[in-house]
DNA sequence: ATGGTTGGTGTCCAA
């Protein structure tokens, strides 16, 4: 089962590029972030004939997540538990059944800038709610995947210029500690289980020639439950699509599970 | 320190 995460930065602006990538990469499951569209505005018709079932949790203008699956979607739920007043569309779950059933959680973790401030407080509180949800899922002892844009640079080796991110919400010690608290529940960073060392990025800013300078950061992650980690066969980053016309500022990250 | 770019349905905000 090939599972990918891709911050698409606007589904309406990127639908054609997404279809091209789906045809090439042939993922079974894709978690999308920043669709920047309501459920009604998602261009389902552009994906007809590709064989994907689509579940969205959209919002006008900002945020918005979706899951695409060519193995079907069961028990879809929307929203991260823990704050009934939270209006931001950043979390969606579904179960996908291949050889095994895998619970897929697609997430768009808050950016948190500027820090300190209310946006940073929201980010840290959201991460604590995510930790609680992961804890509940671990109790099921079933395979699950937390896939998305985490807006966290886990370590200095995950940035081309770590010093440029010192004061940024993506790399502040509290952000890294909150990420580690989730990881330390017993989850596995799938990419890091397969590839070690610096120089592996998933995001390059549109500004200041970040892409031609390879000034990137690794902020899109797939965390695996112990039962999912046992099934991990491979992981990778589809870096090359960043050089295409009108790309997203993120690229897809994928895993292959024996499931 | 600053500036640079993109998408949305915007006369600026979020990233």
From TrEMBL:
The record marks 220 as: Important for catalytic activity. GO terms for biological process: DNA repair. The record marks 151 as: Transition state stabilizer. Mg(2+) binds at residues 7, 34, 149, 151, 249-250. It holds the Pfam family Exo_endo_phos. The record marks 250 as: Interaction with DNA substrate. Its EC number is 3.1.11.2. Belongs to the DNA repair enzymes AP/ExoA family. This is Exodeoxyribonuclease III.
